[in-house]
Amino acid sequence: MKRKLLSVVLCAAMTASLLAGCGNNSGSSNNNADNKANNSADNKVDDSEDNNVADTENNEAPSGPAASDETVVLRVWAAEEDQNLTNELVNKFKEANPDQEFDITVGVESEANAKDDILVDPEAAADVFAFASDQIIDLVNAKVLQPVQDVDTITSSNVAGAVEAASVDGTLYAYPFSADNGYFLFYDSNIISDEQVKTWDGILEACGAAGKKAGMVFASGWYNAGFFFGAGFTSELNADGSTKIDWNGTSSTGIKGTDVAQGMLDIAKNPAFLPITDGDTANQIATGTLGAIVSGTWDAEAAQTAFGDGYRATVLPTFTVAGEQVQQGSVAGYKFIGVNANSQQVGWAMELAKFLTNEESQLERFSQRGIGPSNSAVAESEEVKANPALAAVTEQNGKFGVVQMAGGSYWDPSKSFGEIIAQGNPDGTDLQTLLDNVVEAVAQPTIAE
Question: Which end of the chain is more exposed for a tag (fewer CB within 10 A), N or C?
Fold first, then answer.
């Protein structure tokens, strides 16, 4: 969602996507070779005054680029499941700018994989693209993202958490469009009572009694970090791209990292627990074997179909840590639309990005796809508030979500750690050793001095 970085993910209302994947919730990444063709020389324009973005001194909102006789060629990347909607919005953008001729194509690119594919060749990437918030640091470090010019408009119309997540060192680098990229709990209330759903112990007991399973992705540094964040542990992104985590010590709340790991291990070893592979949550829900699952809004439809009239969504449960109940935390994530700094039409690309993320577009995105908006006005609508999954992710992110700061070297070690725990620590490795290893591995720099 799902998912996955970071470089940065967020918190507070931090919303997918998440994360991002980790996020993890975007469609599958297709072969984008055709979409990544370089812009031809015919599409390039000079640096005339008409094509420059207006100055933003004195906090004045910049005006858009002036219309010209030249056709503006732009490429947009969006998730597979967003193709129809994105094309509709692109057509509306054209209608809103009748004096300018456009040639805008929309290609498929998973939000969860956007960063990795873009960094292969930034100049060949799309002019405008969607990506999960946990990817922003790497994109900024690679100088791929064009800073937002109309800062006041974007910051005043979106929730604070989304703006924070889209900013690096005080500069706004992306246009938020979703605040639901986080994870929470779906469950079947015909199996699990209101009291049982409050704790992992209760959920596992109820699922076991009903011959069902409770599932979660452990082999992901996006998901498994929530256990440590809930216990008061932290993560920091260093200037060299490495990550500092304190999971192998004692948190500010006095909880030892080994006790958190043991709490996770106890869940994993329960016969009613099902470890799920990242990206496979919807398939597992569809099997009908689950009574509860930790996932995000991307699986709301699948969960509702599977659980029927028992379908419910709520905040994550507590888990047992050294005999005490500790609230499970989460990574709050957002989704953005970015503008490629290498675009030959950066001014119009920014106008398009702003249009694709404005209030009307976010309302349409919610109406058609159930995407939780970052736009404050849309988020306050009765329709959004009445959605169980969006209500759950909003409460989880607001109360227990954390801004996750992590570099590229964080993801593989944290995934491996979670995989070992999900398998029940088959080699019997000392938990302190496991945590020491992951802390050391994520501390490896990824940026040359």
Answer: C
Judged against a pLDDT cut of 50, whether residue 6 lies above it is answered with no
Confidence of residue 63 (pLDDT cuts 50, 70, 90): low
Which residue do the tokens 């627990």 mark?
273
What is the value of pTM for the model shown? 0.70
Tokens of 422: 């999900």
Taking each continuous run of H as one helix and of E as one strand, the counts in the chain are 17, 20
| Short-list 218, 251, 277, 263, CA closest to 422 | 218
Cα–Cα distance, 176 to 159 (Å, whole number): 9
Cα 396 from chain centroid (whole Å): 14
The DSSP code sequence of 345-373 is THHHHHHHHHHHTSHHHHHHHHHHH-PPP
**Residue 408's pLDDT is what?**
85
Task: Name every residue whose Cβ is closer than 8 Å to that of residue 275 and which is 6 or more positions away in sequence.
Answer: 215, 216, 217, 218, 219, 268, 422, 423
Give the pairing of strands 273-275 and 213-216.
Answer: parallel
Tokens of 29: 């990444």
7 backbone φψ class: left, alpha, beta (φ>0; ψ -120 to 50): alpha
Largest CA distance in the chain: 71
Q: Using the structure block, give the residue that is written with the tokens 């503008």.
A: 339
Structure tokens that stand for 77 in this block: 């990347």
In contact, 197 and 299? CB cutoff 8 Å:
no
Whether residue 244 contacts residue 236, with contact meaning beta carbons closer than 8 Å, is answered with yes
Please determine, for residue 49, whether its predicted confidence score (pLDDT) is greater than 80. Answer: no
Which parts of 168-315 fold into alpha helices (H)? 200-209, 225-230, 257-269, 281-286, 300-307
- Whether the Cβ atoms of residue 272 and residue 213 lie closer than 8 Å to each other: yes
Q: Six-digit token pair at 367?
A: 């109406």
Q: Which of 312, 295, 293, 303 is nearest to 204 (CA)?
A: 293
The span from the CA of 67 to the CA of 108, in Å, is 28
Nearest to 401 by CA among 297, 327, 330, 334: 330
Distance CA 10, CA 167 (A): 11
Mutual orientation of helices 300-307 and 388-400 as an angle, nearest 10°?
Answer: 120
Site of tokens 């959004």: 384
Residue 117 and residue 211: Cα distance in Å, rounded?
Answer: 42
CA distance 141 to 137: 6
